[in-house]
Design brief:
This protein folds into two domains: 3-167, Rossmann fold, CATH 3.40.50.720; 175-291, N-(1-d-carboxylethyl)-l-norvaline Dehydrogenase, domain 2, CATH 1.10.1040.10. The chain is 47% helix and 11% strand. It is of the alpha/beta class. The radius of gyration is 20 Å and the shape is globular. It has helices at 15-26, 38-41, 71-79, 102-115, 128-132, 144-154, 169-197, 202-211, 217-228, 237-254, 259-273, 284-291, and strands at 8-11, 31-34, 50-51, 63-66, 93-96, 118-121, 124-125, 137-141, 160-165. The strands form two sheets. It has a six-stranded parallel beta sheet with strand order 3-2-1-4-5-6, sandwiched between helices. The mean pLDDT is 95. The chain has twelve helices and nine strands. α7 (169-197) crosses α11 (259-273), α7 (169-197) packs parallel to α12 (284-291) and α10 runs antiparallel to α11 (259-273).
């Protein structure tokens, strides 16, 4: 089967799904899209997409991606009323890019296999800005032959696609990644407040850090939010708490000690309980500053986010 002629279905046109579907359309793929709120997917028709009314209408596609928010959402679009796997046919490949539990993935994998589909877990690392810069990465697990078949499609997502093994191990990779995301952000908030209380601007400290061996794509990306207090959501506290809970549950089952992750999870959960549910999780900086009796003001900095689009 020619990869350029592979027909694609896409379930979930949120901030991430919309951007990734756009990349596939611009790469010349025939893409049909389902989104619970149909109007959010309609603009994709200007790029050549077809918008459908239910996931099962995508069952005749060669490859169907799904990207939804939680376990129950994945089960609904796959097995619920009008779900992808409820009709008389099924796609050859299903690739799920949601961040869900291993147990939820196993359930859908079993249903897909029974329907004659090959199921791959394909969680991603990034957000819409990362996608735009061409720096998204993907972890994939499932049948190796199925991965080899769809790898050319996944290559359009960004800069890196890594096959990590059979079964559900990509879920664990993504959950571990997101636990680190939270822990690193909490630590970054603490040391940034420490430096500012000592008389150093956040911009100066973050520029130094980003140029050092401790700097990373992520610390650069969060630097404008920290310097300018722009907390437009890329990833919210409730979503981060969900991933901490998934990671800590996995750790408990496998006998892994994660005291730093547990402490950070409790801070995140407290923020959620206080109503911090819409802003970006970079507001951990505000929490640390408040606990340290430090008033924050925007530095109106031009500090780079490190995500200049690839040329």
């Amino acid at each position: 089967m020619s990869q350029q002629k592979m027909s694609i279905g896409w379930i979930g046109a949120g901030r991430m799904g919309y951007q990734l579907a756009t990349r596939l359309l611009k790469a010349g793929y025939d893409v049909a899209v389902y989104n619970r709120t149909k109007a959010k997917a309609e603009p994709l028709t200007k790029l050549g997409a077809t918008v459908v009314d239910s996931p099962v209408e995508l069952a005749g596609r060669d490859l169907v991606f799904s990207m939804v928010s939680a376990n129950k959402d994945l089960e609904q679009v796959m097995l619920g009323d009008g779900g992808l796997l409820t009709g008389d046919q099924a796609p050859k490949y299903i690739a799920d890019s949601s961040t869900v539990s291993v147990e939820a993935s196993e359930k859908i994998r079993a249903a897909a296999t029974a329907a004659g589909s090959e199921f791959l877990a394909t969680p991603v690392s990034g957000n819409p800005a990362v996608i735009e810069a061409g720096k998204l990465t993907v972890a994939v697990s499932g049948p190796r032959a199925a991965f080899d078949a769809i790898a050319p499609v996944l290559a359009h997502f960004g800069r890196g696609v890594t096959y990590v093994g059979e079964g559900e191990v990509a879920r664990l990779v993504k959950i571990a990644h997101n636990v680190m995301l939270g822990v690193v952000t909490q630590s970054l908030a603490e040391i940034t407040v420490l430096a500012e209380k000592g008389g150093v601007t956040r911009e100066a400290f973050l520029n130094f850090l980003n140029d050092s061996v401790m700097g990373s794509v992520f610390t650069k990306y969060k630097s404008p939010a920290f310097a300018n207090l722009d907390f437009t959501a890329t990833f919210t506290m409730p979503l981060l708490q969900k991933d901490f809970d998934l990671g800590l549950d996995a750790a408990k089952k496998m006998g892994v000690s994660m005291p730093i992750a547990q402490a950070t999870r409790d801070i995140v959960a407290d923020e959620v309980n206080l109503g911090n549910v819409e802003d970006d999780f970079a507001t951990l900086l505000v929490r640390v500053a408040k606990d340290s009796d430090l008033g924050l003001t925007s530095e109106n900095s031009s500090i780079s986010n490190g995500l200049e689009p690839q040329k």
